[in-house]
Amino acid sequence: MKKNRKNLIQQRKQLTRFQQCRSSISCHHVFRKFLTSHKYQKIGLYLHAFGEVHTQLLIEECYKFKKQVFFPMICNMNNQLMWVKVSRHQYRNKRFSHHPLGMKEPMASRGHHVSHLDLLVMPLLACDHKGTRIGMGGGFYDRTLASAPHKPFRLGLAHAFQLLDRTLTRQSWDQPLDALLTPDHLYRFKR
Description:
7-stranded mixed sheet, alpha/beta, 11 strands
């Protein structure tokens, strides 16, 4: 899997600005339909940093529909993610700090546990047709979700090539997705 992981990271990094824009717009249209057909109020999203589908249109859509938006922050004590509520004003004024791992985080000292959320939009490196997700390798989402008494609906967000035709090996600690959103389709999985 190491070789596949490296290839997927490379493929994601090589996407042009136009390809990223097209993926983002297509995902946004599908996400809008998904959002209006469900009553999720507290939504966890991420700030793209490593070639993932760009999330700004999804974030703005949440604000437009008066949803509460939360971004992840790594808790150094347990290496789990805490979720910080960010207002539209804070988001637009880019009130974020850079984490040593390369992503942006909200500037806050406190956050909520993932069980506080209704919907969690998750980045990924790859996913299969059963909802098995491969992340970037840090295990932050898996560790965080494993400790949640209430698990939010888990929606993966990916470019079309990140959905693999083969079945991935699911480890005991892996936290599967409920659905996957690509520019082409919304796939639902049985948990």
